[in-house]
Design a protein that fits this description.
Strand content: 5-15%
CATH topology of the largest domain: Arc Repressor Mutant, subunit A
Shape: globular
Number of strands: 3
CATH architecture of the largest domain: Orthogonal Bundle
Order of helices and strands: HHEHHEEHHHH
CATH superfamily of the largest domain: Winged helix-like DNA-binding domain superfamily/Winged helix DNA-binding domain
Structural class: mainly alpha
Length: about 140
């Protein structure tokens, strides 16, 4: 297991040690919207993550129990990555990041549509999406 040196006992600092780099959050984002992804799916994202960084982040997120690997139903050579309950519990944080971005940045229309639903009833949205991610 990767041993990450804690900078402090601050909960924000300790949490950022696990999921605070941009690549880890983008992997988590992809899994939240797609529910499951292959290695190749992550490589197709518009951010163009390098293969060595992707492999390292997937390993770290798996070791920290944010994601898990599953057998691919159509190919023994592939695996599917899926969020664990620990990863699913990051959903409220990801929603808040999206709401902040909607307020201060230009975001895609399809994301704005999702955020309209969030703004109607955030708790209901979180509950519904959590249920979907657990399937």
């Amino acid at each position: 297991m990767m041993n990450t040196k804690k900078r402090s006992d601050c909960p924000i600092s300790s949490s950022l040690d696990i999921w605070g780099d941009k690549w880890s959050l983008l992997i988590i984002r992809d899994l939240m919207f797609a529910k499951e992804c292959t290695y190749g799916d992550f490589l197709k994202a518009e951010e163009k993550i390098a293969t060595n960084i992707l492999a390292a982040r997937l390993l770290m997120l798996e070791e920290k129990e944010i994601i898990s690997k599953l057998s691919h139903p159509e190919s023994k050579a592939k695996v599917l990555y899926k969020l664990t309950q620990k990863g699913i519990d990051l959903l409220p944080l990801m929603i808040e990041i999206n709401l902040w971005a909607d307020k201060y940045l230009e975001i895609p229309t399809e994301r704005k549509e999702i955020l309209k639903e969030v703004k109607k009833d955030k708790e209901a949205f979180i509950k519904s999406m959590t249920k979907e991610l657990k399937k």
